[in-house]
């Protein structure tokens, strides 16, 4: 993707099911868990580089021994800094190798020599990069069963509503943020469940010490999650560790945010990305399971694992945009889906170049569009193969070897045109300092395009704002002097904001929205803009369940082709010489390529939760009133 869009986050949870001595004996090191956690996080670095954090919990330590360790970083290389810190704690005993290699000594004396780990990678979706916002976050207590370590991949649309409910309970939260609100909401019901069990066991005549042990064995994580999440409106994969050793990962009922797990007799692993688990543990795809929407994977302190329904699953609306761009393309299904997205664009591309395939060069915008590019080339190859068959059949018995050579030699002209010249993390770097670099991110391969003769088709996974396209890519491609540049988006036009964890909440940022607004103004239909604004204002104070998405009315007067044409006009640099055309994936094509992941609200405005409609209406009001602020 050429535009900077920040994704939600990534999680990695490990529960070692054997004592550390087992891993020392089998794998030659008690650091087996730490090493696997590092790999899980490093291979998910695509999901967050604004911050990283790790927490570890040691089981069965006596009172007075520190049983929770945590380190977080918001540096430029947060994963490295976190694990450098962990390594430093281990290397303190490098001059005493026998102690350093002793699992029992490590458990009692070395930080992060633990049985349970939780790692997190953060993208900030709300502009604050301070260390306080980096997960895992903690709610500490002297009672282990009341201590919670939380990390997640989530955004709630109704955080203010949830915050107010905490106030009604008598709490005084320190911050109106998703993280604090979710942490305290869970914390309230953890305290409630603890108190309920305490009273029960006290009435049975147990001592306080006995009660603590019984609560550790009988605390209902399932009940806590059911009560705490019942009014969550958003997408989430929540991972939590309790001080006494229980752990969970809970997923929203719509399956908006992903979570996968693997389990054997040695280890339980949870991650946001399926292929990461496959690679790190060297296991086949069929061994990695999805945490089902509305369910939680619960790992008890005794090592037992259950997959429990926490909320009633709704119609599956897992995020299709995540699969198009953010997720790792090494996932078997995602790889096939991205190829299919490219292949399905073939007819529109052929029309855009007027079937001049001998005079057309095909390429892609590095790097995530590469898989869709392979699919696009496959589609063109299939078309050309059919042309060859027709030509051979038409020639019949009169065909000569020379004619046959000419027909067979025809193939797509595939070149690597755009090159990411500077090693910039353009899709995750913080906004400050980015603008001066954006024009220098890409370079081009000279000599592969015939000036004034060739069309140049380049595919990208999406066009969101179009900033980099206008300021860098189109300018540099135009230097090759193609007759026409066709920019292809493997996903449909992004028209509506996200509110479930991707930093796309301002309507005014979207090229498609700006194009629709300009078209309305140019065609004398300002009244539609005014009408939509009025309708949005009228439902500002309605319950989220009653809010309608009236912003759809901004787009309804125009066809996708008309809007694509206008986007092209708006993004075209003033000094560009080549003709320019933009081609977008259709909604039908998206669903054909990703049939099991129908969360398409970015493109259709069909939000899976009631809070989504409220967010899009608030975002439109903010746009009209000139407020550059988050809509939720």
UniProtKB/TrEMBL annotation:
InterPro entries reported in the protein's UniProt record: GATase_2_dom (IPR017932), Ntn_hydrolases_N (IPR029055), PRTase-like (IPR029057)
Keywords: Glutamine amidotransferase, Glycosyltransferase, Transferase
Keyword Glycosyltransferase part of the UniProt annotation: yes
Transmembrane domains' residue ranges: none
Protein name (Swiss-Prot/TrEMBL): Amidophosphoribosyltransferase
Record-linked PANTHER family: AMIDOPHOSPHORIBOSYLTRANSFERASE
UniProt cross-references to SUPFAM superfamilies, sorted A to Z: N-terminal nucleophile aminohydrolases (Ntn hydrolases), PRTase-like
GO MF: glycosyltransferase activity
UniProt organism field: Williamwhitmania taraxaci
Domain Glutamine amidotransferase type-2, residue spans: 9-302
Oxidoreductase in keyword set: no
Domain of life: Bacteria
């Amino acid at each position: 993707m050429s535009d900077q869009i920040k994704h939600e986050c990534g999680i990695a949870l490990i529960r070692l099911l054997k004592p550390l001595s087992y891993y020392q004996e089998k794998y030659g090191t008690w650091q087996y868990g730490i090493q696997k956690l590092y790999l899980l996080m490093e291979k998910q670095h695509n999901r967050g580089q604004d911050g990283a954090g790790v927490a570890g919990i040691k089981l069965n330590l006596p009172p007075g021994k520190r049983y929770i360790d945590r380190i977080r970083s918001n540096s430029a290389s947060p994963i490295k800094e976190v694990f450098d810190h962990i390594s430093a704690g281990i290397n303190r005993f490098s001059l005493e190798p026998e102690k350093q290699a002793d699992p029992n000594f490590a458990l009692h004396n070395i930080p992060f020599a633990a049985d349970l780990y939780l790692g997190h990678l953060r993208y900030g979706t709300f502009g604050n990069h301070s260390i306080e916002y980096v997960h895992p976050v903690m709610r500490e207590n002297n009672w282990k069963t009341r201590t919670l370590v939380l990390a997640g991949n989530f955004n709630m649309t109704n955080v203010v509503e949830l915050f107010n409910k905490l106030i009604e309970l008598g709490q005084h939260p320190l911050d109106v943020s998703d993280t604090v609100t979710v942490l305290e909401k869970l914390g309230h019901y953890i305290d409630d469940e603890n108190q309920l069990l305490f009273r029960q066991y006290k009435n049975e005549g147990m001592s306080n010490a006995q009660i603590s042990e019984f609560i550790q064995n009988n605390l209902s994580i399932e009940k806590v999650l059911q009560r705490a999440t019942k009014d969550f409106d958003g997408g989430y994969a929540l991972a939590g560790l309790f001080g006494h050793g229980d752990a969970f990962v809970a997923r929203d009922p719509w399956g908006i945010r992903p979570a996968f797990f693997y389990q054997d007799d040695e280890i339980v692993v949870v991650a946001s990305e399926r292929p990461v688990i496959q690679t790190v543990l060297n296991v086949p795809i069929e061994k990695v399971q999805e945490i089902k929407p509305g369910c939680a994977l619960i790992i008890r302190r005794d090592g037992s694992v259950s997959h429990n329904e926490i909320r009633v699953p709704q119609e599956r609306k897992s995020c299709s945009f995540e699969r198009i761009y953010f997720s790792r393309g090494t996932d078997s299904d995602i790889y096939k889906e991205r190829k299919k997205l490219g292949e399905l664009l073939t007819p529109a591309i052929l029309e855009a170049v007027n079937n001049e395939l001998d005079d057309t060069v095909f390429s892609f915008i590095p790097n995530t569009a590469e898989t869709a590019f392979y699919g696009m080339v496959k589609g063109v190859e299939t078309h050309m193969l059919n042309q060859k068959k027709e030509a051979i059949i038409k020639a019949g018995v009169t065909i000569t070897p020379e004619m046959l050579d000419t027909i067979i030699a025809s193939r797509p002209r595939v070149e690597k045109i755009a090159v990411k010249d500077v090693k910039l993390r353009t899709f995750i770097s913080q906004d400050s300092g980015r603008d001066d670099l954006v024009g220098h991110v890409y370079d081009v391969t000279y000599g592969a395009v015939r000036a004034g003769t060739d069309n140049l088709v380049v595919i990208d996974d999406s066009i969101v704002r179009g900033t980099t396209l206008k300021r860098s890519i189109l300018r540099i491609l135009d230097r090759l002097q193609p007759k026409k540049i066709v920019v292809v988006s493997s996903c449909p036009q992004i028209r509506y904001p996200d509110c479930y964890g991707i930093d796309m909440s301002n309507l005014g940022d979207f090229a498609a929205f700006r194009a629709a607004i300009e078209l309305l103004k140019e065609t004398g239909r300002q009244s539609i803009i005014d009408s939509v604004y009025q309708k949005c204002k009228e439902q500002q104070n309605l319950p989220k369940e009653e809010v309608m998405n009236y912003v759809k009315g901004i787009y309804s007067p125009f066809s996708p082709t008309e809007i694509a044409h206008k986007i092209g006009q708006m993004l075209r640099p003033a000094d560009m010489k080549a003709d320019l055309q933009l081609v977008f994936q259709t909604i039908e094509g998206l669903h054909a390529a990703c049939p099991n992941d129908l969360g398409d609200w970015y493109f259709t405005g069909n939000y899976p939760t009631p809070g989504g409609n409220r967010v899009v209406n608030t975002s439109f009001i903010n746009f009209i009133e000139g407020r550059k602020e988050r809509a939720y």
